[in-house]
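Give me the fold.
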Amino acid sequence: MAITIKQIAELSGVSRGTVDRVLNNRGKVNPSTEKKIRELAEELGYMPNKAASALAIHKKNLVFGIIINSIGNIFFDEVLNGIKKAEKEFSVYEIKIITIKLKGYNPMDQLAAIDELISKNINGLILTPINTSDIRQKLLSLEELNIPIIALNSDIQDVPHVGYVGIDYFKSGEIAGGLMRLFHKTYCHVGIITGSFNSLGHNLRIEGFKSTIKNQFSHIKILDIIENNDDDKESFNNTLNLINKFPELNGIYLSAGGVEGACTAITQYANNPVTIICCDDIPIVKKLIKEKIISASICQQPFQQGYLSLKALFEYIVHNTYFDINSYKLENEIKILQNI
């Protein structure tokens, strides 16, 4: 015979409401009481009534909105696959998921997407936020609408939100600086190619790189920092301009997308052998590492980012579970020829 919440309440000497809050993560309970209830539930083999839980959630008609800058950026394919896996796991609850895909980092496009999702009465929002004042103001207005926010892949400043799912971007940049030093014992003239100055994550990578070389490797000089909006064509043209402007260029740090375009320009037009450090392990990066065009890449587990972001929003809204930052901060992974 299945054990019930009522029986656990009677045996532990607390109310059914207290047991319900503990076992369904619905609110704060005295830690010692929570420990006692969980231990008793485990000892008795308590199993939650998933059908009843699913029915209760279904009656809420929950709608989750997702905004992701995935058009033209293959990196986000795996992020979307992670989201789909979580969506499949939660399908029994019949939560409606509305995903809006954008290209690049145009704040007006993201503002329009947020407004569209608000009009559809979303209960929570996951997005890769553009770090501009108008986006921050719009996201601040969601607090008044009681719409919780999960930042995916890149964080946002000065906006209350449930949490951030992704890597430590500053650390990623520090690692890139250290790797550039390993490949260049003497002078190194580096160009940094980033996705957008409107991305907090991209900017943090640059700051981490600059911090490392300033404090430890004075022989590495940054020639210029340019944007490519994660677009290969733009990346090719801007990298070519960089090569023509600085013939001494012998190092490139790609802190975001547009890898194929930049590498094509370098292999065709660079005046010197160029060490290329980039991010992620998308197919083109793996190919270029195997061809010894890219020396190393710092990866960030895109599938897990997508999966965990939807899971975090589900747990927060459905079970009122506290967002533990340590559970959603992912590790930077270095990939080179020997482990790609």
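The longest strand covers residues 220-227.
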